[in-house]
Amino acid sequence: MTDQATTQPAATPTTDWEARISQLLSNLSSVQGDLLALLGEKRESLAAGEYEKLDSFTNREAELVSRLEHCHTEREQLLGEARREGLPAGSVRSLAQALPATERSDLQTSVDQARKQSRLLQHHSLTNWVVVQRTLLHLSQMIEIIATGGRMKATYGTSAHANSSGALVDQEA
């Protein structure tokens, strides 16, 4: 009788899926919130031309990357374990939907919130990318103006009129 009682709990592992998924989503939400704040600060610095301040974001970004990697590892472990137990393991959403109704009550809301945050992060990242691209274009144009002394090069030929500004409206042209 004691052998059977000892063997049975080891053969049927019990996993508190709701708590594990909830913990993962809580960690992810925290990282996403911090990343949104960082992207906002970064965008403000870029827009204000405070390029020296951009170096200060490097350490925070590295820490957030590490936290995101931890969430990814935790997610992969969770889904791997679910797969081994025969539960849907395609995504955290599918795993949460497979749980009994009593266990998935708040999980759906948390999963939806994490997805919305992820989409918002994509938008903020794209916005920052556009700001950086516009800054690079502006700097490239400034370098070209400095390099050419502000004089425009003739598009066709080497006409003297092409070097004078306002050639279309000047009486001499």
Structure overview:
This is Flagellar protein FlgN. Required for the efficient initiation of filament assembly. Belongs to the FlgN family. Keywords: Bacterial flagellum biogenesis, Cell projection, Cilium, Flagellum. The protein is an all-alpha fold. Helices cover 71% and strands 0% of the residues. The protein has six helices and no strands. The chain has helices at residues 2-11, 17-48, 57-84, 92-98, 107-148, 160-163. It is elongated. The protein starts with a helix and ends in a 10-residue tail after the last helix.
In a nutshell, what does this entry contain?
By secondary structure, the protein is an all-alpha fold.
List keywords for this structure.
single chain; mainly alpha; 71% helix; disordered N terminus; Flagellar protein FlgN; FlgN-like_sf; FlgN-like
Q: Which descriptor suits the 3D outline?
A: elongated
Q: How confident is the prediction overall: mean pLDDT? A: 81
Counted by DSSP, the helix tally is: 6
Residue fraction in strands: under 5%
| Total separate domains | 1
The helix-and-strand class reads: mainly alpha
**Major beta sheet summary:** none
Order of helices and strands: HHHHHH
How many angstroms does the end-to-end distance come to? 109 Å
Percent in helix: over 70%
Low-pLDDT runs: 1-14
User: What is the C-alpha radius of gyration, as a whole number of Å?
Assistant: 29 Å
Number of strands: 0
Function: Required for the efficient initiation of filament assembly.
Protein name: Flagellar protein FlgN
Keywords: Bacterial flagellum biogenesis, Cell projection, Cilium, Flagellum
Family: Belongs to the FlgN family.
